[in-house]
Each structure stands twice: as C-alpha cells, then as structure tokens.
Amino acid sequence: MDAQNIVALLSADYALVPVAIVPLRPPTPKRVVYRIVLADGSSWRLEWRSASVAPPVWCNVATPQAWLERQAAALTLCATYGLSAPRVQPTLQGAVVVAMPLGAALLTEYVAGQPLVLEPSGVQQLGAVLGQLHQLPGTALPPSWWSPLAAISARALGWVTTARAQASGWVDLLDTCAEVLEEAQALPLLPQGLVHADCWADNVIAAASGGVQLIDWEFAGSGSVGLDLGSLLGDCYSVDAAGPQLRVDLLEAALAGYTAWRRLDLCELEHLPTLIQFGAAFRSGLRLFAAGAERLSESFARGMQCERDRLAVSGAIAAYAQQCLWQQR
Fold it and tell me: Is the pTM of this model over 0.70?
C-alpha cells in the first residue's frame, strides 16, 4: 500500500484529501500504519493489512479484515457510551472497514499527546478509564486475544512447555509461567465485558486535549475484565539495585481510580494474584513462540527479564491490592 494508493483510498472511500502522510511504524508487506494530516490541521490514523498474510494464531482472528473489524467494534462501543477512545471514521457508504481485494483498511482518530509517565495522578486516571470501560456491555463483541481464557491459557502453556528445553537461561521463569497458566485454565467464569487486552504504559497517551486515553486497540474484544485490571496493577513497581519493588503510591492510585467506577466481585478478588500474573506469563510464552532465532538477541533478553521482574513482584502487588480491596467491602 504505497502513498498513491492511500491517496486514492482516502478520496474514493472518505472524500478526504491529505496534505501529509506520515508513517507511524515502518511499513511492511503485511501492514502499514500512517498518520493522515488534512488541510484543516486534523489528523487520522490509517491502518491497512494485507489480505495475503493470515493473522498470527495468537491474535485469535481468522482474517486481516476480521482483525480490523474487531478493533472497530470495540471502539464503536466506546463511542456509543461516550467513553474517551479513538473515534472510528466510517466510509461514505457507512462501513467501518474498507474491504479491498488486496487487503482491508481502518481509519480512526489520531490521538495527539505524550506517552503516560507512571506517576500517581496519571495512573489514577487510567484506572478510572478502565473502570468505565469494564462497565460497558461488551459480551456481544468478538472475543479478544485473551478469550476464552481457558483455551488461550492452554495455548500459551503449550508454547512455554515446548520452548522449555531450548531456553535454559529462563527455566525458572518458564516454570512460574506454567504454574500461572495452569491456574488460569482452571479459573471459574469471571465477569465478562469489553477488554482492551494490552493495557500497559506504552499504550496509554496523556492526550493533548486532557486526560489519558488508551490507544492500540488491535487485541480488544470481549473477555474477562479482571485481566485488564491485572495488567494495570502488575505495572505498579519499579526496579532498583535490589530488584523489582512494589510502588504503593501507584497501586493505591490505580485502585482508587478503578473502584470509583467498578468494584471487583468476590471471585475476581479471590483470584486476583492469577489475574495480575497472567499477562506476564502469556507474553513470556508468546515471546518464545514468536522469537525463533531472535531468542539470542538482546531485545529478547530484555523482554524476558521484564516479565521475570513483573512475576517476581506480583505476589507483593496482589497481597497489598487484596488487602485494600477487602477493606473497601
């Protein structure tokens, strides 16, 4: 999808004429993401996915078009209920995704701002956004990449088990991941709704218009809402010379923002440790599955060490969070 084709698509399907097309990610044959700047100063985000490249199995969708349609469905639900999220721009014909022989495209609002700095006020705002998000009736949406939880946990457990013999430097981490994923497989049905399913600092923007906003909704859909909260709480730590340390100020801020809108049910509260640990265990398996020869790279090692740190401090995070939440009941 080159610049000429992008201009033609915007003109034919949206009646838009860009004055600038800026890559937001390095273009690849399977995907391009551009910022589209218009003459009035407004900006849009255009994502195109090739029809010739099937989505990875871990994305939990069958086709590139379905992948974009799942994202659009989640964002449309947010807009319907007035939740702050990137707005989907429909085509002149009212479609949310442009389907073409060579691929599919989705046009959404470009969110201007800066990456969220992990400090209490911003984390409390993010907790409030998640609490509101999880109030939405999202069970009719397509499943997120974390749903159904038992099946997804079994898949990730397979990645971890298969890779264990070839990842000698990470055996302790993988053993912990296997325990967490086995626990996740056995969880009872937890409250369901719309989940972002990739809630971490790099996917949160301190918007220029004020407040915070989640971006990168490509894995969103229906699922267990406690997993989103678990991802947020699992980020409430820092690393110093002694290793990963609980950040009580961040954890209290996240809980204050979230519980102002939604209270956890007893089952979520009981299984909060697994909900906090799941994201790191899932990503560890995914890193091993997707890395291949890159397992020897420095970036792979940094990513795995990050997951090891998260799991190492997750017990302290879960214990403090459960104590706070029980006191609120």
Answer: yes
